[in-house]
Amino acid sequence: MTPIWIGHPSCIHVRRCAVRAWAVASDHDSTELYDVAVIGGGAAGLTAAYFAAEAGASVVVMEKNREPGRKITISGGTRCNVLPQAFDSSTDYFTESSPSALRAVFSQWSLSECTKWLSDKKGIGISLKLEEETGKLFPVSNSAVEVRDKLVESCIRKNVRIMKESAITDLVESTSAPQSDYGENFWICHIASKDPIRAKRVILATGGLSFPKLGGSGIGYTLLRRLGHRIIPPYPALVPLLGKHPGGEQLPGISVQNASAKIFNNARDGKYLKGYKKTRSKGRTAERRALLLTHRGYSGPAILDISHDIVLALERGRSTPELKVNWMRDFESGDWEQILSRKDPGGSQSGRTGVASLLKGRGLPARLVDALCAEAQLPPGRNLSEMRKEERTRLVSLLTNCTLDITGHEGYGKAEVTGGGIPLEELDCKTMESRLHKGLYICGELCDVHGRIGGFNFWWAWVSGRSAGLAAGSLTNNIV
Questions:
Q1: How many of the other CB atoms lie within 10 Å of CB of 358?
Q2: DSSP 145
Q3: How far apart are CA 231 and CA 350, in angstroms?
Q4: Alpha-carbon distance 42 to 60, whole Å?
Q5: Which range is least confidently modeled, 135-139, 190-194, 281-285, 462-466?
Q6: Which range is least confidently modeled, 78-82, 338-342, 447-451, 472-476?
Q7: I need a labelling partner for 67 at 20 to 30 A (CA). Which of 49, 55, 288, 363 fits?
Q8: Kind of pairing, strands 440-442 and 194-204?
Q9: DSSP 3-state assignment of 392?
Q10: Which residues, in sequence order, are CB contacts of 458 under 8 Å at separation 6+?
């Protein structure tokens, strides 16, 4: 069989061997019993397969697409931000599950240990670099394809079998098999148009609903519900928002690099989203500063990081939070009052200076300045000496506390990840094993956890996948 080439041409011999393994993996002995079957070949699934094999298990990965890890290859604008430099589970992650359960998962592995695994030649072998200004770790090659390929190669070296175009349709726990020598308690993975796979342990890593064109189907939620698990309703997270721009016209293509986006949940019905009852007066501020105005609304890290608050409210029929923006994070209302009233101690502008010219000179995009001035009802060409107090008050408010008119979101097609999923309370957070079914492990995006932009969702995939893989791989010998 002629191998199908994917990826870029470095390490050609190893990559051809890996691809050849993918090509023939669909042929299997239907009577074979694997130690571990991993359903889903994304970041979490490949990590789980790697560590299960390292623990000594025979491992098969079932991937519905023609190649594993397709979502990895588009991440980070194809640069693939594999990890953050540091993290805080209380501020960098969102879950409706127990915060202590989330901490328990992360306690199983450290960021430094994960970094070593990704970069060490004895592990995955990706040369990494730190982007100092953002605290992000990227591959030196800036290639997301390299990350995917090396994950696959590492699994192949550990004799993991990868079955492409193998979409799971059902998952059944068998408690007896009189026609075989398997013994009790194994799993049957039913695959569309193929013989089923049998395994002593199963790791579900099918991902969520985001990027359906890359395979996000939600089958994992369906399987878990059939098995009696509760699913916190999924929703698009880290997703662009729909809405009108200031000034009455859409302003696509405008990028603001130093903005501050903040969510305020002023619920009149008393139905506050999680985390607001104690902080509703202060709101929640996005950690990132870059903001993009699109043809349909708003995007960029500052928006994506806090978009789930608005999506949750819209999806669950609750009061929609207010989204406010300070277009220049380092300037508060008092600063602008002094500048626009010509009382700025370091300022040199004269009364003849145009208001719009002054704002553009401070670094705000020209089209955004014109839109804000129009929203503040300033006549074109208004200069500082002509500016009325009420005009200045309106403009200062728009500069520092501008309420964005949000009407919806872009949905799963544009969502970076899926929120919701299986509650962490229904898992053993040291092993990621189901508390309802022994031998069933869940990791990655299926769990009720998502992080903000900046490598945090990869970090969750690596750590949850490792815990599931090690546990499933090391326990197989206790079954039969």
A1: 18
A2: H
A3: 62
A4: 14
A5: 281-285
A6: 472-476
A7: 55
A8: parallel
A9: helix
A10: 43, 75, 81, 82, 83
- What are the structural domains of the chain? 12-235+421-478 (3.50.50.60), 240-410 (no CATH)
Confidence of residue 351 (pLDDT cuts 50, 70, 90): confident
Handedness of CA 412, 418, 419, 425 (dihedral sign): positive
pTM of the model: 0.89
What whole-number distance in Å separates Cα of residue 227 and Cα of residue 188?
A: 13
CA–CA dist 419, 415 (Å, integer): 10
Q: How far apart are CA 425 and CA 438, in angstroms?
A: 15
Q: How far apart are CA 14 and CA 5, in angstroms?
A: 11
d(CA 78, CA 146): 10
Provide the b/e sequence for 132-142 (b: ≥16 CB within 10 Å). Answer: eebebbbbebe
Q: Minimal CA–CA distance to 51: which of 69, 36, 64, 29?
A: 36
* Rg of the Cα atoms in the chain: 26
Between CA 180 and CA 329 the distance in angstroms is 67
pLDDT of residue 284: 83
274 confidence band (pLDDT: 50, 70, 90): low
Residue in the block written with tokens 């604008």 = 77
Among all chains, which residue has been given the structure tokens 């594993």?
68
Residue 283 is predicted with a pLDDT of 75
**Which position has the token pair 């996005």?**
286
Instruction: Decide if 243 contacts 405 (C-beta within 8 A).
Output: yes
Helix (H, G, I), strand (E, B) or coil at 295: coil
| Alpha-carbon separation of residue 14 from 19, 240, 328 (angstroms) | 9, 39, 50
What's the CA gap between 353 and 212, in Å, rounded? 52
Cα–Cα distance for residue pair 474/101, rounded to 1 Å: 22
Let me know: does 337 contact 352? Beta carbons within 8 Å: no
Task: Please state, rounded to an integer, the average pLDDT across all residues of the chain.
Answer: 88
